[in-house]
Sequence to fold (222 residues):
Amino acid sequence: GQNIDQPTEMTATEGAIVQINCTYQTSGFNGLFWYQQHAGEAPTFLSYNVLDGLEEKGRFSSFLSRSKGYSYLLLKELQMKDSASYLCAVIPGNTPLVFGKGTRLSVIA
Amino acid sequence: DVKVTQSSRYLVKRTGEKVFLECVQDMDHENMFWYRQDPGLGLRLIYFSYDVKMKEKGDIPEGYSVSREKKERFSLILESASTNQTSMYLCASSTGQGNYEQYFGPGTRLTVT
Fold:
């Protein structure tokens, strides 16, 4: 089976740094995505990791450890507009993406 | 830019009605997907298609069917809508060929009364 775990909710303060973790157990692995989804809107692509290490893109970074089945999304200099759900998704093999249930992030003043 | 469009943003149907949800993508993508999204359950895959006239069941296909007669269009059909099919329905597409990123449509919020 496929299993992806991420925290249900997180709260952080404007201007701070927050790390959203994702652990996975899947039958295979061809990469991991992070998507952002604002309430009532479609998910939008944030990052893709297929090799171990950190990928940095502006205020957002994503890390992958394949041996540990672990990834995190790091958001720096938090802004109110970062309040959204963050979805971790894994490509198990030659099958569609498997999504976690998402982490709802609230940024407070 | 990739564009995925869905026929309606909001839809209200009665129990027992046949419901069609349409999805169109304009980037010649091979793969198309239908998900439903419910609070606390995340995105769940209903059906997907890797080619015209081809379909594969996802994790929760019961009560749904799909049609892909043209490459750009993937339709989700609820043969006899029920109240437990009230949900947000999201369509997505991807190129395939080793590129797994999925592009999502804006979603259809379906209410079955």
